[in-house]
């Protein structure tokens, strides 16, 4: 087979394969590339030596059976025979579910997670959104310190395990998205600098030198990232990618990497006949992220909406630290603004940033499904000191209100694993660094970070302690007992209602109408012929909804957390404490 590697500054490159080493030759047609032919089959270990240095893994390795520090292995993509015919599934009308393979089950493998996919299909989920699965040090971690952007973490089951998982998901009608990290790699196990200018000091990021998207050599670096993204979608039949922290991509070129990526993914979708989606994480509050390329945007298909999360979180918890400060002064007003305008920060002053932030979304031209709405994510739980979920502090009634606001709102809803039954297990920050110095630096850094906010260091879970990961695994006995069983049934009812009612999937943000009372802590909004109301206070609320659309009364109750009557002809809804209702006009 043919081996190749990009090493533009090397004087020589050697290929080690099947226990022997041979020199590679420069590719006359591609500057900086080296090639060699050698006998090798599926599973054969190999690596490259640059200028007589140590044997290093292939930057485009498809498999790292011994982890990111070991040699690469040949992987034959044809060894998996796909069982499920799959036409694909796009984002309009979707309900996403963020899943971490390593803690979704105690086993922490693709096969164990696949065995639990029936739970999601029954719930009404349409897409599983996997957290990163590229190789990273040790066995357990979040995955954002991954390297080898073309390979799959071996303890999860490697590339074969991922294909079995995707095949099982498609067999149940579930699409699969994958979180990929292009803004940084490693640091442990990151050997890319030994091969070429994959990073540049032209820009700096919180993780050090930036990935080289615009300095000399960046054409090949972009090709590396583009090739990786397309390989996930093509070779693993994934339905889309979630792009981590795109605001951290330092890119000054006229044609940005994200535009190149969206164009390449759209072309692959046309070629395969399957809808393929790119979902960005971005804190820029910039509608150009999801604006089509033809209209001057980046052309990504959706983006996470942190403004919706932050306003919802402050309304539920009253927290006001950090970035929540911008939303805490009037959280229900902030929430009402996001469900009608997408962004809270649309050219407004941000006290957290000390400057104005964001720009308005044209709600008459931008479909609401391009924004992903959620109450919890891996970041918003795991980056808390103790990894506590909302269920640790909210009553079942407030959890029910949370579900209504996420699942009947205008955005593409997303749940974090276990949220659907009010899981009480924490989800904490955990690592398994094999480098003792790095492990100690991570441990001490986390303790210092939260110690500066008043936490005692001994209260902060040790990321390197295996028990920290173990305590983050879902407890699958919870859904069988109360109050979890009732919460689970409520989520299932709401998702079914979303699927049955076109008004709840209407992408027109301009038609969403809201009313709220900051003091009495209630919020109501209209979506077509449906009206949704939540009472977040500990007291009964009287909410003036007005008559039905045809003024013949208050309509009928479609779903309610506690027993509640429809409004009378006076249009007044009497809602119990910490409760919610969905009404249909007569």
From TrEMBL:
One of its GO terms (molecular function) is 4-alpha-D-(1->4)-alpha-D-glucanotrehalose trehalohydrolase activity. Keywords: Carbohydrate metabolism, Cytoplasm, Glycosidase, Hydrolase. Pfam families: Alpha-amylase, DUF3459. Substrate binds at residues 242-247, 306-310, 378-383. Residues 78-498 form the Glycosyl hydrolase family 13 catalytic domain. One of its GO terms (biological process) is trehalose biosynthetic process. Coiled coil: none annotated. The record marks 379 as: Transition state stabilizer. Pathway: Glycan biosynthesis; trehalose biosynthesis. It catalyses: hydrolysis of (1->4)-alpha-D-glucosidic linkage in 4-alpha-D-[(1->4)-alpha-D-glucanosyl]n trehalose to yield trehalose and (1->4)-alpha-D-glucan. NCBIfam families: trehalose_TreZ. This is Malto-oligosyltrehalose trehalohydrolase. The gene is treZ.
């Amino acid at each position: 087979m043919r081996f190749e590697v990009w090493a533009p500054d090397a004087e020589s490159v050697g290929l080690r394969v099947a226990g022997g080493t041979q020199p590679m030759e420069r590719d006359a047609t591609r500057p900086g590339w080296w090639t060699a032919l050698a006998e090798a089959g599926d599973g054969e270990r190999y690596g490259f030596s640059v200028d007589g240095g140590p044997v290093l893994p292939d930057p485009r390795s498809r498999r790292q059976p011994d982890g990111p520090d070991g040699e690469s292995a040949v992987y034959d993509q044809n060894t998996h025979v796909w069982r499920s015919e799959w036409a694909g599934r796009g984002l309009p009308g979707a309900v996403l579910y963020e899943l971490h393979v390593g803690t979704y089950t105690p086993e922490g493998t693709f096969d164990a997670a696949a065995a639990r996919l029936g739970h999601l299909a029954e719930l009404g989920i349409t897409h599983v959104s996997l957290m990163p699965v590229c190789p990273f040090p040790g066995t357990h971690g979040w995955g954002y310190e991954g390297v080898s952007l073309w390979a799959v973490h071996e303890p999860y089951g490697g590339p074969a395990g991922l294909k079995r998982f995707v095949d099982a998901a498609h067999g149940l009608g579930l699409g699969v998205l994958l979180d990929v990290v292009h803004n940084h790699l490693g640091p442990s196990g990151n050997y890319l600098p030994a091969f070429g200018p994959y990073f540049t000091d032209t820009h700096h990021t919180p993780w050090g030198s930036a990935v080289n998207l615009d300095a000399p050599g960046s054409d090949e670096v972009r090709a590396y990232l583009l090739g990786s993204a397309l390989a996930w979608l093509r070779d693993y039949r994934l339905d889309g990618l979630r792009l981590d922290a795109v605001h951290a991509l330092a890119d000054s070129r006229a044609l940005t990497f994200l535009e190149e990526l969206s164009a390449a993914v759209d072309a692959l979708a046309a070629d395969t006949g399957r809808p393929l989606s790119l979902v960005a994480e971005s804190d820029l509050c910039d509608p150009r992220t999801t604006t089509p390329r033809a209209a001057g945007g980046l052309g990504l298909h959706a983006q996470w909406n942190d403004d919706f999360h932050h306003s919802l979180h402050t309304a539920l918890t009253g927290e006001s630290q950090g970035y929540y400060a911008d939303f805490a002064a009037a959280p229900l007003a902030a929430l009402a603004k996001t469900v009608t305008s997408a962004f809270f920060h649309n050219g407004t002053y941000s006290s957290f940033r000390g400057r104005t932030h964001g720009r308005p979304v044209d709600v008459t031209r931008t479909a609401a499904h391009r924004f992903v709405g959620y109450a919890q994510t891996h970041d918003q739980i795991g980056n808390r000191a103790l990894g506590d979920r909302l269920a640790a502090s909210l009553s079942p009634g407030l959890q029910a209100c949370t579900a209504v606001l996420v699942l009947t709102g205008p955005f593409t809803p997303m749940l974090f694993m276990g949220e659907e039954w009010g899981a009480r297990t924490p989800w904490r920050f955990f690592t398994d660094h094999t480098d003792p110095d790095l492990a100690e630096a991570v441990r001490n850094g986390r303790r210092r970070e939260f110690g500066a906010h008043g936490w005692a260091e001994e209260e902060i879970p040790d990321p390197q302690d295996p028990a920290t990961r173990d305590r983050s695994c879902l407890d699958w006995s919870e859904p069988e007992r109360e109050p979890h069983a009732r919460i689970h049934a409520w989520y299932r009812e709401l998702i079914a209602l979303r699927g049955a009612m076109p008004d709840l999937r209407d992408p027109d943000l301009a038609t969403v109408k809201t009313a709220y009372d900051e003091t009495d802590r209630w919020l109501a909004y209209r979506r077509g012929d449906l009206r949704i109301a939540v009472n977040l206070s500990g007291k009964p609320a009287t909410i003036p909804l007005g008559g039905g659309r045809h003024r013949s009364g208050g309509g009928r109750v479609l779903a309610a957390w506690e027993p509640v009557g429809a409004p009378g002809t006076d249009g007044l809804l009497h809602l119990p404490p910490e409760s919610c209702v969905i009404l249909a006009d007569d």
